Amino acid sequence: MADLEFFFDPVCPWAWVTSRWVTEVKQLREYDVRWRFISLKMVNEARTDGAYGDNFRDGHMAGLYAHRVCDEVRLQQGNSEVGALYTALGMAFHQSDTERMINGDPETFMTEILKTADLATDYASHVHDESHDAYIREDTELALSRTGRDVGTPIITFHPGQPDEGSFFGPVISAIPRGEDALRLWDAIELIATSSGMSELKRSNRAQLNFN
Predict the structure, then answer these.
(1) Residue 116 contacts residue 109 (beta carbons within 8 Å)
(2) Phi and psi at residue 133, in whole multiples of 5°?
(3) Cβ(25)–Cβ(180) under 8 Å?
(4) CA distance linking residue 146 with residue 144, whole number of Å
(5) For the chain (length 212 residues), average pLDDT per consecutive 10?
(6) What is the pTM of this model?
(7) What is the reported pLDDT for 195?
(8) What 3 state SS string does the chain have?
(9) Measured between alpha carbons, how far is 3 from 198 in angstroms, rounded to an integer?
(10) Neighbouring residues of 140: CB distance < 8 A, sequence distance ≥ 6
(11) Nearest Cα residue to 167 out of 202, 194, 191, 196
(12) pLDDT recorded at residue 55
């Protein structure tokens, strides 16, 4: 059983930074992380307000294209390869700023990402396979059932399936903690997440994102 479940949409830069912190701790403490899906397109599909414009819609569709391929990798090869694909996607989307390119030619874009992740390129054909959407929606709904619906990404669950299971949106961090800093933050967040009765800890101020 995993020590942590991490629900991600690959287009979210804040989730990407948090995921690199999780990966750092995973390596330092040999924790088992299960990579799961939360689709921002599905979360926002009922929105009709003017603030939810074409840029958001295109970005969220990019996430769904990527999720479909991630799901096929999950089915064929398993969780660790989903993590490898998410790493390749995050580097392309956030550290090379090529997210928008996926919308023009999703299959070609994902072919290159799969090559980077050392995965079979024929998975790229699943970008248009809507049969994956049911599982992606199921994961999305599970994540929101654990936190409430007024949140974004990432959502993390400590100790899934255990008596002290605890889930939160976040932590939203602007830079990736490394080494002892990563471990100190992990221990603090794990304690908060698994403490009985703890519901919310929040501030709205955010520093500029740093992906290094």
Answers:
(1) no
(2) -65, -30
(3) no
(4) 5
(5) 93 95 94 96 85 82 96 97 97 79 90 97 98 98 92 92 91 93 94 79 72 75
(6) 0.92
(7) 81
(8) CCCEEEEECCCCHHHHHHHHHHHHHHHHHCCCEEEEECCHHHHCCCCCCCCCCHHHHHHHHHHHHHHHHHHHHHHHCCHHHHHHHHHHHHHHHHHCCCCCHHHHCHHHHHHHHHHHCCCCHHHHHHHHCHHHHHHHHHHHHHHHHHHCCCCCCCEEEECCCCCCCEEEECCCCCCCCCHHHHHHHHHHHHHHHHCCCCCCCCCCCCCCCCCC
(9) 19
(10) 7, 37, 38, 39, 42, 43
(11) 194
(12) 80
Question: What's the one-letter identity of residue 56?
Answer: F
Which residue type occupies 132? H
d(CA 211, CA 192): 25
CB 130 within 8 A of CB 110: no
Type of residue at 117 = A
Question: Which amino acid, 7?
Answer: F
